[in-house]
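I trust your eye. Have a critical look at both lines of this record:
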Amino acid sequence: MKVSIITVTYNSEKYLEDCIASVRKQTYGNIEHIIVDGKSADGTLKIIQKNEKSIACWVSETDRGMYDAINKGIKLATGDIIGVLNSDDMLASADVIMDIVACFDEKKIDSVYGDLVYVDPDNTKKVIRYWKGLSYKRSRFNYGWMPAHPTFYIRRELIEEFGGYENHYFTAADYEFMARYLYCHKISSCYLSKMIVKMRNGGVSNRNIYRRLRANRRDYLAMKKSNIPFAFLVSVLKPLIKIPQYKSSLGRNVNNPHKPHWFFSSTVLLFPADANAEAQE
C-alpha cells in the first residue's frame, strides 16, 4: 500500500528541512512525498532541491492558497492513501506511517486519524497543547468535534469520488473536507491512539480576535453546508471545547506523552469516555 504525503510550501525555509527529514526517517518504505510550492521567494526551493532524492515530485507555481495547492498535490498523488503534512510540522516518530498503514489493513476502513501535539516553534520539546483524539463516532460532529486534520489519512479513491478541498472556505476548508466525508458521506474511520504529528504553534486563524471571529464564520458556513444541526451554536462551541487541551500540557513531555500528567480530552466535557477508548485521565 503506497502512502502519498502532500506538503505545501510558501517561503518555508525556516522549518521545511525538519518536515522533509521526518518523512525520510519513516520505517515504512512505500511513501511518496509530494511538495507543492507557491513560488517561494526565499530559500525554500534550495532546500527542496537539496533533498530531491527523498522527494517523489515537486512543483513551484502560483496558486490560490494552501488548499488549492493541496488539491494540486492530490492530482499528482499515486498512492492508495493520502495525508497532508504542513511545511513547519513533523511526523512525530519514525513508525507513524507504518502504524497508519497497519490500521488501514487490519480494520479495513476508509480513513484514520490520531493525536497531535502543538509545540513551541523554536523548542519542539516544549508542549503548548495536546490534541487527544477519541474513538470515532459520527454524532460527535453535532457538538463541534473534529479529528485533528494534520493526522487525517484517507483513501485516494474516495477523494476521486467525492472531490478535494473547497478553497473558498479558507481556514475552514479542512473542517468542511472532513465533515463532508465523515458526516455527509458517512465513510468509515478509525482512531489510532498515537501521536501522529508535532505541530509548531501559531495557527493563522487564532492570531487575534478578529481572525478567530472570521474563522468562526467560516466554520458556521461549512457546518451549514454539511447540514449539521444548530450550526451557529456548534460553530461557537467548536473553539470552546478545545480550551482543556491547554491544560493537557501540564506535566507532559513531548518525548514521553503517556507519563503521569494533568490531561483532559478536547471533548471530555461533552462525552463520556468510550469503553474501548483509552481512559481519560
